[in-house]
Each structure stands twice: as structure tokens, then as C-alpha cells.
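User: I'm preparing a small set of examples for a lab meeting where we compare how different chains pack in three dimensions. I only have the primary sequence for this one, and I'd like the structure in C-alpha cell form so I can line it up with the others. Please keep the answer compact; I'll paste it straight into my notes.
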Amino acid sequence: MPRPALFLRFELDGGRLGPGKIALLEHIREGRSLAAAARSMGMSYKRAWELLAALNEMFDEPVAVTHPGRNVAGATELTPFGERVVALFRALEHSAAQATAAAVDELAAASRRAPAARRKATAARKAPGRG
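Assistant: Understood. Below is the C-alpha cell output for the 131-residue chain.
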């Protein structure tokens, strides 16, 4: 059974910041390309471009810059501020997960399993030769 997950999303004055946009920035950092980031995330280039534009509009400083016409590695890169946004988000995510681990575990233990998992567990209990 997968471990329950906590997801953070911030509703800032400039827009929403959550794990998807942070992942996009991380993919841009890795590939230094918006197109490569979009491909690795399974999204269209247009969608990735829209998300990056929203991120750049969200803050007073840009999180990434693009170099139009460059069809080589390095066409898109994070700014120092973009690196800081990723680091802050991941640090907050880690702190929140640590702070809520016991409560999340308690909720997970009390939650019902998905119907397919219940059927499997019931079938396993009724299987001949168990005892």
C-alpha cells in the first residue's frame, strides 16, 4: 500500500503555486529546455509555456528566462530567484511532511481501503489452506 501523501499548494496574491509548477521548474533546470521539460512531464509545449508565463507573472522577479531562437541546450534556464522558489517550496514540503507524519499515519490507518483492495483481502482470508 502506498504511503499517504501530503500536497502543498499556496494561494498567493499572484496565483497558485503547487507541486506541478515546481516540478516544471525542476525539469527546466535539468534539461535547460522548456520543450524537453514539457516532453518529460507528458504535457504539451503550449501548456508548459503557459505555466511558465504564469509563474513569471506571479512574482516581482522572473523564475526563468528563455532565449528565443536557441534550439540548443540552455534555451531556458532558472534565474537565481527561480532556484530559491524551488528550494523554499521543497523545504516547506519537507517540514510539513515531518510535522504532520503522525496525524497522517493515524488518518491512513483509520481510512477504508479502496474497494478492489477490500475484495483482494476478503478473497485472501477465504482462500482454502489458510489457517
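A couple of notes for your slides: Residues 80-110 form the longest helix (31 residues). The radius of gyration is 21 Å.

User: Perfect, thanks.
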